[in-house]
Amino acid sequence: MAPRRKKIYEGKAKILYEGPEPGTLIQYFKDDGQAVTTTRETPTEGKGVLNNRLSEFFMSGLNAIGVPTHFIRRINMREQLVRMAEIVPLEVVVRNYAAGPLSQRLGLPEGLPLPRPIVEYYYKDNALNDPMVAEEHIIAFGWASQQDLDDMVSLALRVNDFLSGVMLGIGVRLADFRLEIGRVWEGDFMRLIVADEISPDSCRLWDMRGTTDRGEGAPVETRAMPDVYTELARRLGILPGSAAPSGKPTLIN
Questions:
Q1: Do residues 74 and 127 both lie within one domain?
Q2: Is residue 100 part of a domain?
Q3: How far apart are CA 13 and CA 29, in angstroms?
Q4: How far is residue 108's CA from residue 100's CA, in Å, rounded to a whole number?
Q5: Do both 103 and 67 map to the same domain?
Q6: 52 φ, ψ to 5°?
Q7: How many of the other CB atoms lie within 10 Å of CB of 93?
Q8: Are residues 26 and 118 in the same domain?
Q9: Which domain holds residue 35?
């Protein structure tokens, strides 16, 4: 039997175990958790396997274009080896279209293209429901410095450019997504990297196929569908064949 691994952390969708080498962790993807626009309460069978492959795809792509991430390599169907990082206690959200909380707060019609990508910060605290915070709060409470924030915005916008292009190529609109950022040290030098995962659990995705262009500046047609995991993996070529498994919906949230 393999030696029992030390559990470092367990969240809704993932478990982190001590890695095989100093400075590494093993990230295990569970079937729990849900896509941004899904209210499903029961685990989705096989979701963790797909999210492992999807996050590998996106993190590897970011590494290849010089955007630093914690991803090292995939180990098996549910696990990947990642760099250990000190997670900044913020969720960084990039919004390209009005949807969800932004539409509710400002009364904007869902699907309205934003004049430019908007970056927001949310303080990571489940007991407080991850409240939105301003840069003043972040700096005052020491969660990050002004230089950190500048670097985080730069990282987030580069990730946005990459993800938007990839999604556009497979007929999917990236409405918004969230990132977690980690700090790593290389000697005395600290830098920020993209951590956690990039998957439908952290992205709001709309299917563009079969929709109608309503003209520049008009709200886009939004199509919220189940089983975004299987369909996204299929379109990206992560799943073999051209069709999702029988009986499962095939459109994007």
A1: no
A2: yes
A3: 6
A4: 10
A5: no
A6: -60, -45
A7: 22
A8: no
A9: 9-84
**Which residues have CB under 8 Å from 241's CB, separation 6+?**
234
Residue matched to tokens 């934003």: 114
Are 37 and 61 contained in the same domain? yes
Question: What is the count of structural domains for the chain?
Answer: 2
Over the stretch 82-135, which tens digit does the pLDDT of each residue have? Answer: 999 999 999 999 999 999 999 999 999 999 999 999 999 999 999 999 999 999
Q: Using only C-alpha atoms, what is the Rg of the chain?
A: 18
CA–CA distance, 85 with 102 (Å, rounded to integer):
30
- At 48, which CATH number? 3.30.200.20
Q: How far apart are CA 160 and CA 194, in angstroms?
A: 12
**Do residues 171 and 186 lie in contact, with contact meaning Cβ atoms separated by under 8 Å?**
no
Q: Is the pTM of this model over 0.85?
A: yes
Can you list the alpha helix ranges (DSSP code H) found in the chain?
A: 47-64, 100-106, 135-140, 146-169, 228-235
Establish if 96 belongs to a structural domain. Answer: yes
CA angle, 103 then 233 then 216, to 5°: 35
User: Are both 61 and 162 inside the same structural domain?
Assistant: no
Amino acid making up residue 151: D
Q: What is the pLDDT of residues 125-174, one digit of tens each?
A: 999 999 999 999 999 999 999 999 999 999 999 999 999 999 999 999 99
pLDDT per position as a tens digit, 184-217: 998 889 999 999 999 999 999 999 987 766 667 7
Q: Give the tens place of pLDDT for each residue, 8-57.
A: 999 989 999 999 999 999 999 999 866 565 545 555 778 999 999 999 99
